[in-house]
Fold this protein.
Amino acid sequence: MPRVVVDVVLKPEISDPQGQAVLGALGRLGHDSVRSVRQGKHFVLEVDGTPDAAELKQIAETLLANPVIEDVELHLPTD
């Protein structure tokens, strides 16, 4: 059964307080090489048959994300 991964993150122009909190914690723990953190959501969908990219994009943009403030990235199986 094919697996499709959907990653959703806030658009760059949208403030990310959770990402900023993680970045601050990393600095306090001595991880000074990390310059930016953006938090997001990760979905794994198991689908029957061959994944339909257009259908999955519609699902991601209407149910899994808010396209006004979030970007969606689909990772379809490559085999």
Summary: The chain has a mean pLDDT of 95. DSSP finds two helices and three strands in the chain. Helices lie at 17-28, 53-64.
